[in-house]
Write a structure and sequence with these properties.
Strand content: under 5%
Distance between the termini: 55 Å
Order of helices and strands: HHHEEHHHHHHH
Shape: globular
Number of strands: 2
Oligomer: single chain
Number of helices: 10
Strand order of the largest sheet: 1-2
Radius of gyration: 19 Å
Structural class: mainly alpha
Helix content: over 70%
């Protein structure tokens, strides 16, 4: 007996695949998403493809150049700056709370993710590194014990993963994650917040260099995020 896949499940399958292809770089900024071609590729009707593209629009991955021409979005400097401002505000708070509220099991799981990231880094598996590092940060958010915090992050989580994928300075990321793990595991909330802040700002500068070739931010053209508020935290990523 042939099982018919529900329309909602088809839509989610197409959406998940296209989202991951954008995050991984298989679909690049400016690439067109043509309903007919995607429907043929996935072996589905145009309806779930159309709905998936609309969902990608809402998530910030896609833009419409004309009413009928959908393309992968090209992030501007302002887009990147605003996403990292949000990440800074929420992840720094989450790191402190994780240090205060994390259980032994929470810390053990964070260590497992760190070990997995180290193995992936040793093998140079880009997609695995991005996935594990994302799960590392997601677990820190979960350890904070604030469901509203997680719900606020969900709408931009995909775009943050997209940006994280731009930073291929994997050894440095691993070093910073190890420092964050140690601070959280120690229960030192102030130290965890300081390390999280430096980590987000370093990652911001690395992403800007990769995307735009320099360290200027998306607002006023000055160098780096810390140029706006006068707080320096060292360079390199």
């Amino acid at each position: 007996m042939t099982t018919v896949e529900p329309l909602g499940a088809v839509r989610e399958r197409v959406l998940a695949t296209l989202r991951q292809e954008i995050i991984s770089g298989r679909l690049r900024p400016g690439d067109r998403l043509v309903e007919r071609e995607l429907a043929d590729r996935f072996g589905v009707s145009r309806v779930p493809v159309r709905e998936a593209v609309r969902a990608l629009l809402a998530e910030g991955f896609v833009t419409f150049e004309t009413p009928r021409r959908a393309v992968v979005r090209t992030l501007t400097r302002t887009d990147v700056a605003e996403l990292f401002e949000l990440r800074e505000a929420l992840e720094v708070y989450a790191a402190g709370r994780a240090a205060e509220r994390g259980t032994r099991d929470d810390v053990a799981r964070l260590e497992e993710l760190l070990d997995a990231a180290a193995r992936a880094t040793d093998s140079g598996e880009a997609e695995a590194i991005t996935d594990i590092n994302t799960r590392f940060h997601d677990h820190v958010l979960a350890m904070a014990g604030n469901g509203l915090l997680i719900s606020v992050m969900e709408p931009v989580d995909g775009r943050l993963r997209w940006l994280t994928r731009q930073n291929e300075e994997w050894r440095h990321l691993l070093t910073e994650h190890r420092a964050l793990y140690e601070a959280v595991a120690s229960g030192d909330a102030d130290r965890a917040r300081d390390i999280a802040l430096a980590h987000v700002r370093t990652n911001y500068r690395s992403t800007v260099r990769h995307l735009f070739g320099d360290g200027r931010d998306g607002r006023d053209g000055r160098d780096g995020r810390d140029g706006r508020d006068g707080r320096g935290d060292g360079d390199g990523s």
